[in-house]
Predict the structure.
Amino acid sequence: MDVAALDQILEALERVVEADLMVILAVEDANTLRACAARGRLATPAIDGLLVRLDERPALARVVRGSSARIIHDDETHDVHEPDTYADVLSLPDSHTCLAAPLRVEGQLVGVLTLDAMACHAFSEQQLRAIGGFAELAARVLYEQQRAERIARELDAVVSVVGELRETGAAGAVLVGRSSAWRAVVERARLVAPTPAAVLITGETGTGKEQIARAIHQWSPRVGGPFVALNCSALVPELALSEMFGHEKGAFTGADRRRLGRFELAAGGTLFLDEVADLPPVAQAQLLRVVQERTFERVGGAGAVLRSDVRLLAATHKHLPAEIAAGRFRADLYYRLNTFPIEVPPLRERVGDVALLVAHFVGRLREELDMPRLRVSGGAVRVLERQPWPGNVRELRNALERAAILAGGRTIKPEHLDIGVVGGACMPAGRAGGDLPLPAGLRRLDAAVAREILLALQEAGGRIAGAGGAAELLGVKPTTLHSMMKRLGIRRARR
């Protein structure tokens, strides 16, 4: 729990309302509240983490069931049958004022704000309205923190599950995801794996095409054989045939010994041609012969024909029909490779998989970077889920590695991610969406609140009131939102 953010709310409330004790309590369970932050001259360390049972405080329980701030006790005849909220750690006189405000977000109770004053009739009607506004803000902050903690706990659980997957699949690929788009890809891979059919895997850069290829090999009858990968875009045209089919000693200048090509190295297993669209034309012609006749020759082999015994998988991020139309790729080779196509979706179409992928990568980074205490906050996950990821899964992994280093191996928070995200688009740091700049000079809490308001305004198309308006999205009244925007210096974008 980020106590500092809650403490800032109480600090601001102190400037408006005079009270001897202000406490924000979070819902622990249906009958229990837990003190999270306290301010005032009566605040003591004993209040931190204090558990308050509602069945022992009927007056407080009545307020909790309501929706607005109410005075619990405000006279000199304090009900001796019901102890004060903090009677276990404080000794308050009977003649004092107790006030409680339920903290709700979209009707859900997330906590309670209490104020105690060492005098009767301490709070005016105007102060009660002000307390209600602060209660709405505290509710939103508490709600987001509870949600972040819940996500973090879920991620920790997922990390252990993913760790088990990584151990059981150590010889092959680990396919992380549960979205319908990803499950469809995995199902196609499982379907084609037992067959000898050639597979063409397409998709944007960084989507995990090689992982799908490794999974097909792992699930195939050739799992006992080698999995050999060749990046065709890294081939030097003059040496492409040697890389693929090998060469004999003396075949060309510098060939001082026989060398086996990838087809021989992959014998009995699977050969994966990554970025196959970048194969030089001469290599495309020879590859077509291998696919058709299942035979090949080493460079300088003097007609010695070798038998091909490989399962061929290919991948590319390019649109091969367009490459064929431009004369850069052979149509006959395309039809041979495209026996069973699999298209891997971009990460922006797998938003539901982001949290799982984050947990997977965090688990690996703990080992690779020797950071056993590394974890990720729920707030950071929310930021990552809004990122469009043009570099897909590979970019996500790199972003997490940078964040892990910036976080010093502890908890990755939003400030450790060098990305600015609003509504699914990358934004420069310090801005929060479209024509709505984040006002400069705001304190950390105010900046966080301003960002949420700007996000809600953008989702609502600039509307504040009404169904689907920003106020409804934030769970506050339109008048309250207007006041918050005015205080924070936020202007609504002209439509």
Notes: Residues 423 and 459 are 7 Å apart (CA to CA). The chain has 16 helices and 19 strands. The chain has three domains: 3-151, 180-347, 420-495. The radius of gyration is 32 Å.
